Amino acid sequence: MSGHRRVAILISGGGSNMAALLESMTGDHPARPVLVLSNDPAAGGLALARAAGVPTAAVDHRPFGRDRAAFEADLSAHLDRAAPDILCLAGFMRVLTAGFVGRHAGRMLNIHPSLLPKYPGLNTHARALEAGDTQAGCTVHEVIADLDAGPVLGQARVPVLPDDTPDRLAARVLPWEHRLYPAVLRRFAAGDRTPVLLP
Fold first, then answer.
1. pLDDT tens for residues 186-199?
2. Can you give the pLDDT at residue 116?
3. For the chain, which residues score pLDDT lower than 50?
4. Closest CA relative to residue 197, chosen from 109, 151, 138, 110
5. Does 68 carry a binding-site annotation?
6. Do the beta carbons of residue 108 and residue 86 sit within 8 Å?
7. Which of 82, 91, 117, 136 has the fewest CB atoms within 10 Å, counting from its CB?
8. pLDDT tens-digit readout, 124-157
């Protein structure tokens, strides 16, 4: 792995964006995966990662209750052992504290299913439809302490159709997430923060 940037991917569920990232990190890609880490030991993405030969770990957030610092300390112990250069949040459904984000400042990415700065947080597709938007999409951004507010590193746009529901729109955006995130990671791992714009 000499010369490659080491990547840890954090997930909470099935890991479709994680799978797209893993599939991309081959050949001449400047990065390689060293860990897939989840807050849910039953997350489907862990089995996918193991099948791809990537080390996995899980820290169940539930026993920690409201003690986010203790939960993040356990996450950090796994990350310290893997020593990643870059962290990719891929459907990781826990809000991270400013302290955790600060320790990884400038090297943590996230994908969000809206055209940020529009619609940070949840229910993005429903909010886009309610607003009468003609375009929706997804954004990869650098993670900062403020939720979904870091510098934009890439966006993919899709048209909003007259008969769209939140589920239909989400289903059309998802394949673009799977193209955008790997494209941004490739560029970011090579030291280039110029935003990727798709299609």
1. 999 999 999 999 99
2. 98
3. none
4. 138
5. yes
6. yes
7. 117
8. 999 999 999 999 999 999 999 999 999 999 999 9
Contact of 8 with 35, CB cutoff 8 Å? yes
R_g over Cα of the chain: 16
CB 89 within 8 A of CB 143: yes
Read out DSSP for 57-84? EE--SGGGTT-HHHHHHHHHHHHHHH--
Phi, psi at residue 71, to the nearest 5°? -60, -45
Tell me if 155 sits within 8 A of 115, measured CB to CB: yes
- The answer to whether 61 is a known catalytic residue is no
Nearest Cα residue to 56 out of 69, 47, 65: 47
Distance CA 87, CA 7 (A): 6
pLDDT at 186: 98
The helix or strand, by DSSP H or E, that contains position 101, with its residue range, turns out to be helix 98-103
- Annotation-wise, does 123 bind a ligand? no
Among 39, 43, 76, CA closest to 58: 39
Token pair belonging to 198: 């798709």
CB-based contact 156:198 (threshold 8 Å)? yes
pTM of the model: 0.95
Residue 168 labelled as part of a binding site: no
Which of the residues 61, 112, 125, 141 is marked catalytic? 112
Residue 38 known to bind ligand? no
| CATH code for the structural domain at 5-190 | 3.40.50.170
Q: At what angle do helices 44-51 and 16-24 cross, to 10 degrees?
A: 20
